[in-house]
Design brief:
Blueprint: E1 6-11, E2 14-19, H1 24-28, E3 35-40, E4 43-45, E5 56-61, H2 65-86, E6 91-92, E7 97-98, E8 101-107, H3 114-130, E9 133-139, H4 141-147, H5 152-161, E10 177-183, E11 190-195, E12 209-219, E13 228-237, H6 240-256, H7 258-264, E14 268-269, E15 280-281, H8 283-302, E16 306-307, E17 313-315, H9 316-322, H10 324-327, E18 336-338, E19 341-345, H11 350-357, E20 369-378, E21 394-404, H12 406-426, E22 431-437, H13 448-464, E23 468-472, E24 482-488, E25 494-503, H14 506-509, E26 514-515, E27 521-522, E28 525-530, H15 535-546, E29 559-563, H16 569-581, E30 586-588, H17 595-604, E31 609-613, H18 615-619, E32 622-627, E33 632-637, H19 638-650
Parallel strand pairs: 1-5, 16-20, 22-23, 29-30, 29-31
Antiparallel strand pairs: 1-2, 3-4, 3-5, 6-8, 7-8, 8-13, 9-10, 10-11, 12-13, 14-15, 17-19, 18-19, 20-21, 21-28, 22-24, 24-25, 25-28, 26-27, 31-32, 32-33
The structure holds one RNA strand of 76 nucleotides.
Length: about 650
RNA sequence: GCCGACGUAGCUCAAUCGGCAGAGCGACAGUCUUGUAAACUGUAGGUCAGGGGUUCGAUUCCCCUCGUCGGCUCCA
């Protein structure tokens, strides 16, 4: 090796000179645990790779996003090795890091059982303990094809490499193919190898914590036309503590599962008799829903919306005009044949709103015309995707369509986004980011300049709200750009909530027109927007956000009166009467349970306020509060107590 | 729709290697009532998701359907 004897590099912002053959790991004095890889000139490198002249080198900490991804990717390799040791006939698919973990796909005769997972995990722990080295080796395409002759899926990826160089794949990518050998640290013997771009942690010992999570089928390369492989998901972290935190979050999320809370709190159910994805709301869920809707109506009324109503079913003609029958038929329930006509359940409200717009001539003076409806729609969701209230077949959208002139579009979009964000905040969601889906240059309708202006306006408004803006280039539907509001809930999960979408297509198809000031006929701009998305879904999100402990204004039962003994029931009933007169939803627990049991029941039903009354309270014309957190406030005069509750309801406070 | 797991009382879960199905909570009835998360006693409650098959006999084994759960695809 007559390598250059000295190399000039930049480390931590300072110029350094190191001997030729120095590795990134040596240069960074990395231990392979807190620092798992290096970044040189923006590219991630193995610690064992030699530095190059002129490198600007930074460490990749284990607890950074890249660091975690590397740990997870390496863990995926360990898993694949374990799988192939236990199931030698298993063929490899791909095994990338993903959010919070990693997966690897395998072609196996029999799907993995939970027992298999245990065996695989056990073997993985042995491999980790053994400290196998991840050793990078560049290969030519032909060499790779030869070495991986038994791995048909890997061969397919090698074959794809040339054509799809832009594909960001962890297997192939960059200029050359590389294979990672896993070597026995003592003997240097080859234990396993995989086609992989890398980088990897230096040894399997650099995987501090991991756990296999679940299995499932997954189509090869994500297409349902391809064979289905068996995927194993796992998680891996830079420390045991971080992993425990993550697992704890999952437990917390499970406790908040709206499907579970919905049954426990008697909010809604999915009767088998109705069919999959068709919820019914019980009285308690019904109250929440009604309050949600009432408040939304009130706010829409204040914001200048007109309320409309449309039927649930229509002749096919409407969806021929709108084009739904061309491009959305799979998502619709099949037609009913009646009197020689075909009728469809409506999957969307907008076509019907268009009919309202064009029911008579429209003047520019009427614009913006904002039509709002709680419109119930039915969509044929495939059986495997139905999920609680978040993915259903029958749902009610808080759907609005705004018809305006080009000149009005800008202001309308601005006020609309503010309206949406304000309203979401009122429902208790206040941590947002926005996603802007822009034009797909290959596929769009409508004039360029309107796309441009609408997109720019959406961007401006997003920026003026000081919200994080994620771009989704080319992600818009063909008929218009879209901005969607993503909300983070109480435990940091994000949900797609509202969408605001321009539609340049339907006004054309329905030949919508208004008469402008100069007497010409113009096509209106149509803005489509749903704030909740669907009431069902939003309801589900709120259940999870609040973990079922709704703020008083939404709580189905706001107050439970609990007598210390039977003798105090009638006093509490008087209190309840007064409270009801102030609009409070209050119940008195007059059952023959003991007081402690009543408290337990009320606590479990997550009622915001308990009002207790015994001899002491009655003597002072008072009641005693118990709050959800177990705190109490005793001897509060009845009027004051009611005022406090009314205040919390009116101000929509959480308590 | 596809791959896999699952479906026992209102809920949470036992049991039956093919031989009369069980508990806790809840419900109901009665007894007892005094200060912040479970009083006591009793009663009712099941075509073991539905249908078909194998068998002397099926909740148990096989097939189909429905539903639920975890993934994939999809989410206009």
């Amino acid at each position: 090796m007559s390598a250059v004897s000295e190399l000039r590099i930049t480390l931590a912002g300072a110029a350094r000179v190191v001997a030729g053959g120095t590795t990134y790991g040596e240069a960074l004095e990395a231990d392979g645990r807190s620092v798992v890889a290096a970044r040189a000139g923006g590219e991630l490198k193995d610690l064992a790779a030699p530095v190059a002249e002129g490198d600007v080198i930074e460490p990749v900490p284990a607890d950074s996003p890249d660091g975690r991804a590397i740990i997870r990717h390496s863990t995926a390799h360990v898993m694949a090795q374990a799988v192939q040791e236990i199931f030698p006939e298993a063929r490899l698919g791909i095994g990338p890091p993903v959010e919070n973990g990693f997966y690897y796909d395998f072609d196996v005769k029999n799907p993995f059982t939970p027992d298999d997972l245990k065996r695989i995990e056990k073997r993985m722990r042995e491999i980790v303990k053994q400290g196998q080295l991840f050793s990078r080796r560049p290969v030519s395409d032909d060499e790779a094809a030869g070495e991986l002759a038994a791995e048909p899926y890997k061969l397919e990826l090698i074959g794809l490499k040339g054509g799809a160089a832009d594909e960001e794949s962890v297997e192939v990518g960059g200029a050359e193919l590389t294979i990672y050998d896993n070597l026995d640290p003592k003997t240097g013997e080859l234990c396993w190898k995989d086609l992989c771009r890398g980088p990897h942690v230096p040894t399997t010992r650099s995987i501090p914590a991991f756990k296999l999570m679940r299995t499932g089928g997954a189509y090869w390369r994500g297409s349902e036309k391809n064979p289905q492989l068996q995927r194993i998901y796992g998680t891996a972290w830079e420390s045991r503590e971080k992993q425990d935190e993550y697992l704890h979050l999952l437990v917390e999320a499970e406790k908040r599962d709206h499907r579970k809370l919905g049954a426990e709190l008697d909010l809604f159910s999915f009767p088998d008799e109705l069919g999959s994805g068709l919820p019914v709301f019980h009285p308690k869920g019904g109250v929440i829903r009604r309050v949600m809707e009432d408040y939304s109506r009130k706010r829409h009324e204040e914001a200048g919306y007109s309320f409309v109503n449309t039927p649930h079913i229509t002749k096919s003609k409407l969806y021929e005009i709108s084009g739904h029958l061309d491009w959305y038929k799979d998502g619709m329930f099949p037609a009913m044949e009646l009197e020689g006509a075909e009728y469809y359940l409506k999957p969307m409200n907008c076509p019907m709103h268009n009919l309202i717009f064009r029911s008579r001539g429209r003047s520019y003076r009427e614009l913006p015309l904002r039509l709002f409806e709680f419109g119930t729609v039915y969509r044929y969701e495939k059986s495997g995707v139905i999920h609680g209230l978040t993915r259903v077949r029958g749902m009610t959208q808080d759907d609005a369509h705004i018809y305006c002139t080009h000149e009005q579009m800008r202001d309308e979009l601005k006020s609309l986004l503010r309206f949406v964000l304000d309203l979401l905040r009122d429902y208790g969601l206040d941590d947002f980011y926005l996603e802007l889906s822009t034009k797909d240059p290959e596929k769009f309708v409508g004039p360029d300049e309107v796309w441009e202006e609408a997109t720019e306006t959406l961007r401006e408004v997003a920026e003026s709200e000081n919200l994080e803006l994620v771009l989704d280039p080319g992600g818009a539907a063909f008929y218009g750009p879209k901005i969607s509001v993503q909300a983070r809930d109480a435990i940091g999960r994000t949900w797609q909530m509202s969408t605001i979408q321009l539609d340049f297509n339907l006004p054309e198809l329905f030949e919508l027109e208004y008469q402008a000031a100069d007497g010409t006929r113009q096509r209106p701009v149509k803005i489509h927007r749903a704030l909740f998305g669907s009431i069902e879904r939003f309801f589900g999100v709120l259940v999870e956000h609040y973990a079922g402990a709704f703020p008083p204004w939404l709580a189905p039962v706001q107050v439970v009166g609990i007598p210390i003994a039977e003798a105090h029931v009638s006093y509490l009933q008087d209190v309840a009467k007064k409270a009801r007169e102030r609009g409070i939803r209050i119940e008195v627990d007059a059952s023959d349970d003991r007081m402690q049991k009543k408290i337990r029941n009320a606590q479990k039903s997550k009622v915001p306020f308990m009002l207790l009354a015994g001899d002491e309270d009655i003597a002072g014309g008072a009641v005693s509060f118990r709050f959800r957190n177990g705190e109490q406030k005793n001897g509060v005069p009845v009027d004051e107590a009611i005022a406090e509750i009314v205040d919390a309801i009116e101000r929509r406070l959480q308590v």
